[in-house]
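Intended use. Records like the one below are meant for learning the mapping from a protein sequence to its folded structure. Do not use them to infer anything beyond what is encoded.
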Amino acid sequence: MIDIQNQRDDRNISIDNVGIKNLRYPVTVRDRRDGFQHTVATINMYVDLPHRIRGTHMSRFVEILHSLSPEVSLRTFSKTLEKMKDHLNAASAHVEMTFPYFIEKKAPVSRSPGLMDYTCRIIGSSDSNGKVDLISEVIVPISSVCPCSKEISDAGAHNQRGEVRLKTRFKKFIWLEDMIELVEASSSCDVYSVLKRVDEKEVTERGFTNAKFVEDVVRDIAKKLLSDNNITWFSVSAENFESIHNHSAYAHITRNKMESL
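Structure written out for the chain above:
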């Protein structure tokens, strides 16, 4: 059969990224407590395409994914990237895997257990020189209490749920749980799936005594990451879905620690 995709293209324009997007696929990720956790990822896979080739072979992306172990790890990510370059005759490759990750979390006073789900992402790229770049990302729900509202009000303070996005580059493996716990510890109070009345009292009062702006949240996280020698680069943002405004409050910090060496 004629291979139309492999025909020569005369427009002399290379393509930076071509491939498949939003593929849902079962994967197994590392779990700090249980060893492994089964989940379903939404996957994007791209390679570059030289100017002389009309199209890439889309079916090979899924074949490559299926041929490898379903475990998502630093080792399998690097292996996937190199296999993409080899089987698709590409100079560079890029993979993004986004998946829900579940952690059992007990309420602070009653200790009632419940599952919290966090959106996590692993992003990997391999360039023409074979250099592999890996980024881990967690998206963590938090609660925050406004310090200004607390200061000026005779009673109470406005509070809201927010979201922190933390991305890291690192020298050696870092647990998703460690990233999530770092974020939660830097909020006014973390969020739970199960709360009894004694727990609701605890988190309400904890948040009130630990009022934070979005600026405080990202700075507290950044301070801890700057002192962690395993982290080489990070990007952290906080967004509060304001309860008394028709807009969100937002703050963001990115630091490349390798630039200061």
